[in-house]
Amino acid sequence: MPAKLMIEVVKTRKTYAGAKQPAVDDVDLTIPQGTFFGLLGPNGAGKTTLLSIMSGLLKPDAGTLTVAGVNVSRNFDGVKRLIGVVPQELAVYPILTVRENLSFFGGMFGLRGKKLKARIAECVAIAALESFVDTRAEFLSGGLKRRLSLAAGLVHEPEILFLDEPTVGIDPQTRNFIYDSLNRLNSAGMTIIYTTHYMEEVEKMCNDIAIIDHGKIIARGTAAGLLAQYGANVVTIKAREAIPPATWRQLTADHAADLSVDGNIITLKSDGHQDALAEIMAKLRQHGVTIRSIHMGAENLEEMFLLLTGTSLRDGEAP
Amino acid sequence: MIFHKLWVMVVKELRVILRDKEALLILFALPVMFVTIMSLAQQDAFKEKGGVTLPVTVINKDAGKIGQGIIDALSGRKGFKVDVAAPGADEAAIKKDVAAGRLKFAIIIPADAAEKVDAGVKAQLGLSPSAAAVRVEFISDPSMQGTIRKIAISSINRILQGIETTALLEGVTRMNERMRRYPAGPKPADTPKQARLFAEIDDDHSAGNAPFPTSVQQNMPAWTLFAMFFLVIPLSATFVREAQQGSLVRLKSMPVPTWIFVAGKMVPYFIINQIQFVLMMLTGMYLLPLFGSEVLEIGHSWGGIALLAASASIAAIGYGLLIATFCKTGEQATTFGGTSVIILAAVGGIMVPKFVMPSYLQKMTAVSPMSWGLEGFLDIFVRNGTVAEAFPHSLRLLAFASICIGLAIFRLYQILSR
Fold it and tell me: For the ranges B130-139, B204-213, B225-234, B314-323, which has the lowest average pLDDT?
């Protein structure tokens, strides 16, 4: 039996006031129950906007969103209990203690009494905050605050957890802790939808990856599947110095469809790349460009991403 | 369930406020310090109000020259602006206007003033039995600051003394003339009698027999209202912080109606406002007298006071919510919120009492909700008003609050559904 669809996005579009390009442009997306879904993209690609639309927090200009079979535009309140959100900001009250924060957010979902106490204890355990329950959030380290933010998103036992770049700006230890916690939650059946621009995160955790650029989903699959599909027919040539403009113009004039140049890196994407490679090498020699290395195929998602979008994932840290 | 969520929201908000030392300072310590300093400082300053023009309405029932003489003397005196009521004017209506504060002072010259003065002069000269003194009635707006009223009374008494002296001199001149012409006629007594032609105006004739207003009665409600409205700063700062720290985003994902969010903000600040109010009143009643100030008299209408305190608080919270939801940064909210409250206080007769303002500024006070609250409290504290007198002021405050809260909910709904 096919897994139940937890998220179904159809022809969704969102353009912010004053923007020339849509932040999300006619996106169709379905996410089955139990998926650990990674939404990958460079800064400004539309990750947060798409995540906000999928979690019902942002109204799209067009398109429909269905969460667990419920049309969100008709009954958002009906699905709120199913959704947990861990926003990019810490989204907790610094002046309240860990317990008070969790008690407040649990209370907003109608939890009270023993049930609330039990959930607070469980979430504190998931986030390993046992030693800090009565510490104000403002006195926690950056990593502990992130863990509190995660616990606050889990307090009402959601079926779907949305996380918007939850590991930005935290130490490797906390990052690994969050990976482990999310993996355990996913193994227990929770659907997790996760945005990031850290490639190793999605390679490590996600069993379903979508790459978004300029508001469009440009690739979708598992890490291995994406590499197999998009990485095999690629040649990367690294020159010792930046490619001179005259060389760059001639190369792109001859191989416009298959070739991109980024500083000292030339990327060639072609099924019959042996002939093309020979031509390019000859031209580089002719223009006096010294080659440092030639690499066949994409070895990881980082390289594949560069091929697909022509840009690095880590061009600047702010999303 | 829904009230449980409201309770959770209120508890959270109270925790946030009570742990914010700066907010507590703004809400409690500063207003008490401020009102103490301002009341004591203004108490002295009010005693030196020399350059104020006092509007006086004169009801002249005297057909003789005494009534006109008083009017001429008043008109010629620097510091008075005389408005003579038309003959046959409704005396009761004028008294009512003074009692309500629409007119500041009025004097009523009795119909038989000239005859009584003549009789008094004769009595003084021993030519006839003693005569009753002329009783010029003086009434004043009960909210008029005491020292200003005393200056007015003293000035009018001096004018009456002047008229009395002139009348006596004229009487003596007439007597001498008569004695010269008719040496066998009646002789004046050896020693003139000490009786006065005019009864001295006492300082206890303000309209409505209400207790006299003091600087404390003006300042305490005024600065209390100012303190109540100053909650705009902590309220808007916490709201903007919630938006910036992302808590608002998390709240958006929760099944919480917008009204719970708004009510969750209103209830704690309402409680705080009421505590502020009681604290400020206690300061006026018990703390300020320790520094030599008058004791704050608060009238007799507990219901009226409660109604006004509640309405003013809801208006202040509504204004705070409006600022909080329309400002994008904490700096914007605190700067605009704080400045606008100071302007509303200045315009509304909080910083400078309304009655010392020029008339065009007095009219402008009507735009400030703080002025509505202040007038309401003065009605009760000074004019012995009841719930009925407080009600129109309360209604205006609640109408203002409804508009502000309506706009804030609309804005919040926009923010949450973006």
Answer: B204-213
E strands, B235-290, in order: none
Q: Among A29-43, B184-198, B252-266, which stretch is predicted with the lowest mean pLDDT?
A: B184-198
Give me the domains of chain B, ranges plus CATH numbers: 2-44+213-416 (no CATH), 54-209 (3.40.1710)
Cβ of B297 under 8 Å from any chain A Cβ?
no
- For the purposes of burial, counting CB atoms within 10 Å of the CB of B403, is it exposed (0-12), middle (13-18) or buried (19 or more)? middle
Secondary structure of residue B28 in the 3-state scheme: helix
Q: Output the pTM of the full model.
A: 0.71
Place of tokens 């863990």: A147
Task: Tell me which residues of chain A, numbers 38 to 57, contact chain B at a CB-CB cutoff of 8 Å.
Answer: 55-57
A–B: how many Cβ contacts below 8 A?
76
Q: Give the C-alpha distances (Å, rounded to integers) separating B274 from A272, A288, B202, B227, B314.
A: 81, 83, 39, 11, 11
Question: What is the average per-residue pLDDT within B142-151?
Answer: 70
The complex's ipTM works out to 0.74
Q: Measured between alpha carbons, how far is B178 from A172 in angstroms, rounded to an integer?
A: 120
Interface contact A110, partner B, CB < 8 A: yes
Question: Is a pLDDT exceeding 60 seen at residue A229?
Answer: yes
Contacts of B24 in chain A (CB under 8 A): none
Of B12, B246, B417, the CB nearest to A59: B417
Beta carbons of B138 and B105 less than 8 angstroms apart: yes
Q: Do B9 and A109 touch (CB under 8 A)?
A: no
Of B8, B20, B245, the CB nearest to A90: B245
Using a CB–CB cutoff of 8 Å, tell me whether A92 touches chain B.
Answer: yes
Give A176-236 as a DSSP string: HHHHHHHHHHHHTT-EEEEEES-HHHHHHH-SEEEEEETTEEEEEE-HHHHHHHHSTTEEE
Helix, coil or strand: residue B209: helix
* Contact residues, chain A, for B242 at CB < 8 Å: 93
Q: How far is A49 from chain B (nearest CA, A)?
A: 11
Q: Do A93 and B251 touch (CB under 8 A)?
A: no
Q: For residues A149 and A161, is the Cβ–Cβ distance under 8 A?
A: no
Q: Does A314 touch chain B (CB under 8 A)?
A: no
| Phi and psi torsions of B410, nearest 5° | -60, -45
pLDDT at residue B103 above 50? yes
- Core vs surface per residue A65-103: b (16+ CB within 10 A) or e: bbbbeeebeeebeebbebbbbbbbbbbbbbbbbbbbbbb
Residue contact B250–A105, C-beta within 8 A: yes
For B398: left if phi > 0, alpha if psi spans -120 to 50, otherwise beta; the answer is alpha
